[in-house]
Amino acid sequence: MAQNTLVENKQPLWLFSAEEIASIPPYEKQFVRKLAAYIIVCSEWLSLPLPVAHYAVVLLTRYDMLYDLEPRTEAPYIAAACLFLACKVQETHKRLRDVVFWTVKVRTRKSRDYPGGEEVLEGSVRYVEEKENLLSAERDVLRCLHFDIFLETPHSSIVQLAKIYGNTRENQRMLAQFALNVLHDTYVSIPFLHIRYRAKEIATALVAFAAAMYDYALPDKTIENGQSGQNESRLVAFHEYFQVNRIVLNEIWKRVLDCYEPEYSSEDKTNSLSKEENRHR
Amino acid sequence: MSEANHRVKRYQKEKVLGEGTFGIVNKAKDTKTGQYVAIKKVRMGNSKDGVAIPALREIKILQDVRHENLINLLDVFGTSSNINLVFDYCIADLEQIIKDKTIALSTAEVKGALKMILCGVAKLHENWVLHRDLKPSNILMDTQGVLKLTDFGLSKLFASPYRKYTNQVVTRWYRAPELLFGATQYGTGIDMWSVGCIFAEMMLRQPYFPGDSDIDQLSKIYSALGTPTEEEWPGVAALPAYVEFTPKPRPPMRQTFTAASDEALDLLNQFLLFDPWKRISAQDALNHPYFKKPPLPCSPNQFLEKVKSGRLFLDSDSRYSLNQVETDDPLSKRRRYSDLGKRRLEF
């Protein structure tokens, strides 16, 4: 792939520093994770594609960074509103009555009154109440996020990288599938990752992570003495494709591995990271 | 003072510019910059399914794709019942310019206008966006004479060529024949057909295919271009709403466009090819010899001067006036960090 195909970096408008994210209290981070899981479960019942749910989780995280999710009684409505908005923005339209039905049912599951979840049907007084709360939360989310609802998710970049760097269809599928699975986990376990790093950085890190897990050497025809730019037709190194800094990649790897603890010890982490580093030295 | 409150008061409404399907457009003055802006007010309070999808589409696309020939979204703010989209203020639309017969558009001016339209369409298509409602009233002229595409409420991303879309798009007069035959899989060709209709309209100074029903629309197209054969448009008979017409021969275009150059007619023909896959793309159209041969396309300034010479500007600025600023709904949320709050998107 010629070097001139490198994708232009856009100014990250919605990325927060490590300090800003660290300033969120741990109990609140845990609460956001619970809401993210709530969004994912609702999206499954609504038969929504996963990228829509992921989109909603990022909206929720952005919201939490600007305005805290207190009082907690409002928070599930904010999460449901993020999901409803994500459906609209991603052109995966769902009827309001279905969104109300499933978000209430999932929210009230395992409660004393409704062990199987409350079923709110269109036309009932409860429906009107729930609908008003959801629509009010939707307007609230839009206004709090300053109507900036455009966001890039790593999904397409993962597929793009897997197609470029997988040498066979089987390897391409393997890289993309593993990276997408890990990506899904990040939205539930470390949702703040998506407001810390660019989508393309996350995509690059996860494809490299998938390659490391399968012990697949990502092809790279970079000339060893470092003067690799002279050959226009060379395939750029995987981290160069989206111009991702390797330090950032390592940071993302560490965050991702942390969410799989104790499956991978810190020693394993260092080993696999060093292995990947050595491969590109 | 809350931010929403502040932002509503920042814009002082002066008059109604127009009323569309989704809301009213007002002219307003931005007290911060002293510039005039257009504010499109979209109702969101009473909608059955919450915030209107066309408004969200428009916001999303205009945040993502920016170009000189696309309307510039300056700001968005909400009140209790509306979303307000703040755009560059434009002084006229192409429909008004075409209808004003006191403005004599020369070949250079038609070329200049078409070039600006094509640049905007090319940028959209390059970003995988179909406009799906191109027509003269959706092409505005700003204070510098630059034409800008607007109204992205029907726009759509077209990443997958196999995905099905609704065929109930595009105002009838500018609707491509595949849409009239009910096609649900289509691409950039539908916008290019509309561009062809607009190009013809600029030369004729009246709509080229003013049908009053879908059948009449097809009839008018066939009267001007002849009925397509299976060779010209493979697969036409398989379209869902295909209707067979009595074959009509294709009359020479020169009969209708008496003053047009050969290059202009060739380009128009390529815009109006029946087979959508053979229709010229916006980028190829920009490289067509029509734009290379003299007279060369005029500059936006020259276009503005010509438009200003017409009656259009003598009649303007006298329609409606509104009272200042509506009541607003203060943003009651507790802001977490003042510094994070400042991170808001600067349009």
Largest sheet descriptor of chain A:
none
CATH class group of the largest domain in chain A: Mainly Alpha
**CATH fold name of the largest domain in chain B:** Transferase(Phosphotransferase), domain 1
Number of domains of chain A: 2
The average pLDDT value of chain B, as a whole number, equals: 83
- The domain tally of chain B reads 2
Describe the fold and architecture.
Chain B: Belongs to the protein kinase superfamily. CMGC Ser/Thr protein kinase family. CDC2/CDKX subfamily. Chain B: Residues 11-291 form the Protein kinase domain. Chain B: InterPro entries: CDK, CDK7, Kinase-like_dom_sf, Prot_kinase_dom, Protein_kinase_ATP_BS, Ser/Thr_kinase_AS. Chain B: It is an enzyme of class 2 (transferase). Chain B: GO terms for molecular function: ATP binding; cyclin-dependent protein serine/threonine kinase activity; RNA polymerase II CTD heptapeptide repeat kinase activity. The complex is a heterodimer of chains A (281) and B (347). Chain A is mostly helical. Chain A has 2 domains: 18-151 and 265-279, Cyclin A, domain 1; 155-258, Cyclin-like (Cyclin A, domain 1, Orthogonal Bundle). Chain A contains 12 helices and no strands. Chain A has helices spanning 18-22, 26-45, 50-66, 75-89, 96-108, 125-144, 155-165, 169-189, 199-213, 238-241, 246-258, 266-279. Chain A starts with 17 loop residues before the first helix and ends with a helix. Chain B has 347 residues and is an alpha+beta fold. Chain B folds into 2 domains: 3-88, Phosphorylase Kinase, domain 1 (2-Layer Sandwich), CATH 3.30.200.20; 91-299, Transferase(Phosphotransferase) domain 1 (Transferase(Phosphotransferase), domain 1). Chain B is built from 12 helices and 10 strands. In chain B, the strands form 3 sheets. A 5-stranded antiparallel sheet of chain B has the order 1-2-3-5-4. Chain B has a 3-stranded antiparallel sheet with strand order 6-8-9. In chain B, helix 6 runs antiparallel to helix 8 (262-271). The chains are: A mainly alpha (281), B alpha+beta (347). Chain A binds chain B through residues 13-14, 16, 20, 23, 65-68, 70, 84-85, 88-89, 91, 93, 95-96, 134-135, 138-140, 142-144, 146-150, and chain B through 4, 44-45, 48-51, 53, 56, 59-60, 63-64, 76-78, 83, 156-157, 331, 333-337, 340-341, 343-345.
